[in-house]
Give the backbone structure.
Amino acid sequence: MDYIWPMALLIVGRLLYREALTWNKLVGVAICLVGLWFINMK
């Protein structure tokens, strides 16, 4: 259940941050989320 808050923050941030999403940004966000997930696994 720990993944609900990051997802909620991403949705709220997307609504407030009106800039075009490119594939580069989506890939960057995905890499950051995976990195944070690995850090939290320890």
Q: What stands out?
A: The mean pLDDT is 79. DSSP finds two helices and no strands in the chain. The helical segments are 4-16, 23-41.
